[in-house]
Design brief:
12 strands; alpha/beta; homodimer; 38% helix; 2 domains; five-stranded mixed β-sheet; Nucleotidyltransferase, domain 5
Amino acid sequence: MEYCFGVDIGGTTVKIGLFQTDGRIVDKWEIPTRVENKGEAILPDIAEALKKKMEEKGLDNSQVSGVGIGIPAPVDEEGVVQNTANLGWGYKEVKREMEALIGMSVAAGNDANVAALGEMWLGAGKGQKNMIMVTLGTGVGGGIIVNGQALAGAHGAGGEIGHLCVNPEETECCGCGKKGCLEQYASATGITRLAKKRLAADDKDSALRGKEVNAKEVFDALKAGDDVAEEIVEEFGAYLGHAMANLAVVADPSVIVIGGGVSKAGEILLGYIEKNFKEKAFFANKDTEFVLAKLGNDAGICGAARLILG
Amino acid sequence: MEYCFGVDIGGTTVKIGLFQTDGRIVDKWEIPTRVENKGEAILPDIAEALKKKMEEKGLDNSQVSGVGIGIPAPVDEEGVVQNTANLGWGYKEVKREMEALIGMSVAAGNDANVAALGEMWLGAGKGQKNMIMVTLGTGVGGGIIVNGQALAGAHGAGGEIGHLCVNPEETECCGCGKKGCLEQYASATGITRLAKKRLAADDKDSALRGKEVNAKEVFDALKAGDDVAEEIVEEFGAYLGHAMANLAVVADPSVIVIGGGVSKAGEILLGYIEKNFKEKAFFANKDTEFVLAKLGNDAGICGAARLILG
C-alpha cells in the first residue's frame, strides 16, 4: 500500500489530502460541505471526490490503504457519531456508510484529536509518542496523544481541554453551561473578555483603549510594550499554564503543542504559558517542552491520514 | 500458555500471585522486601520464589506467559526505573534484570497504574476499557485506563491524580512542594487536616471533639448523623468531585473506581463525590458511574498479571 486519504470535515468546507504512507502529501484540495437535508450529501460528495482523484492519478483500490476522517463531534470507536452541531447529522454510522460508498477501509475520529495526531506524525510533535495539543481558536480544543494514539475515551469525548475548570470562583457561564472553563480565558473570545474586564477596572493608559479590542490587538500591544496588554496576557498565561500543569500530571507528555488562531501571536505566547506552567507543575513534569504547532490548517488531513494507518 | 505471575513490590512485602491466563488466581503469597544494600536482593528473591512455586506446581517455562511486576515508582516503557523512594533502588533496568534471572518475558509498570489495570480486569471495572481508579490512602494515587491500557506517559509518571491542583488559593504545602494538591484534601491525612481545621473554626457541638481525630472517626461520626462530620465530608467530596470532573473531561471514562483505605467507609462515600462531580461535570461526562474498588490488596498482583498478558 503506497497511498491513503485524509479527510477533514468542517462546517463550510471538507479538506482532503492524498498522502503517501510515509507522510508525503501528494495532493490536497477542498470541496464544499453541503449541510442541507441533514447533511445527507456530505459523505457521497467525499466518496465521489476521492474516486475522481484516484481516476485522475491512475490509482486503484489495491494501492490505497484507506480513508481517515476527522469529524467536528465526538466519535466512538465504531466510527459512530450521535449528533453534530454544524453538519446537520444526527446519529450516523460514518465508518460503515463511508466504507459502503468507497469500498475501502475507513477510520473516523474527533477533529481535534485527529489534528493532534497530525502534529505528532508530521508537525511539531514529530517523533513523540506522548503529547498534548491545545488549539486556541474561537473556543479551546485539544487532543491528547497517549503512546502514539489519540485518547478518545468511552464516548469519543476525550481531550475536551477547553472545559477543564480553572477558576472555581467564576460567576459568568461558559457556552457549555459550566463556570470557570479554560475556554473562558484562553480562547480568542476569552482573551477579548479578559481585556474588556481589565480595561474597565481602571483608567491606566493603554494603546488598547478607544477601539474594539480583540485577541490580536492584545498581542500586538504586548509586542509594542503596552503594560495593560502584558497584564492581560499574564492572566491568560496563568490560567493556561495552570490547566497544562494539571493535564501534565495525569498525561505525562514530553511536549505540549500550542496551535489555533491565537498561536499566530508567535513564540512570545509560549513564555507566558511556560512560566506559569513551571510554577504549578509536578516535579516529574517540569521539563515538558512547549512548542508552536507547525501544520496550520493541514493538521486535520494529516492526522486523518495517520488514523487510517493505525 | 496457561499461566502467568503477577508481582506487587511494596516497601515491606512483595505480594506474588500465580494466575491462569483467564484470570483465576491459582495461588498467592508474600515474601519480605529486603531493601538493605540498595535493594540488591529484591529481584533475586522474587526469581527464587517464582522458581520454587513452579517446581512445587510442576510447571515449566513453556506453560507460563511471563511475569508482570508493579513497582512503587515511575517506570518507563523499557521497564526502567530512575529512582525509588522506599526500595533502595537507584537507576535499575527491572525488566532486563528480571528476564535474565527468570528466563521468561517480564513487563513492569507503576504500582498505582497496575492496580487500576487489576480492577479493570477482575474487579470493579470489569468489562470496561476506559476507567479511572483513585486510591485514597495515606496519599492519593491513581491510574487511568485508556482503551484497555494504563496511561504511563513519557516518563512513566502518568496518572498522578493526587497532585492535581484543586485549590489555587491554598497556603499550606503538599508533600510534593506544590500547594492545593488533591492529596491535601482527599487522602486519609488530608481528611484529618480538614477535620482539624473545621473543628478549630468554631465550637459547634460534635462527637469529633476531645479526641485524636482521623479519617475513620470522621466517617463513623457522619454515619451517626454528626453535622460537623458531614460538613467535613462535604468539603472532601467537593474537592474530589471537582478533580474527577476535570479528569473526566479529558479522559472520558465510563467508570470511576474509588479504592484505598478511606474507601472502607463504604457506599456512603460515593454519594458525596458523585453529587459534586455531577455539578461540575461537562455534559458528555454526566453519566460516568462511581463504584467502590473490589480487589483490595489483590489489585496489584492482578494488574501485574494483566500487564504481561498485554
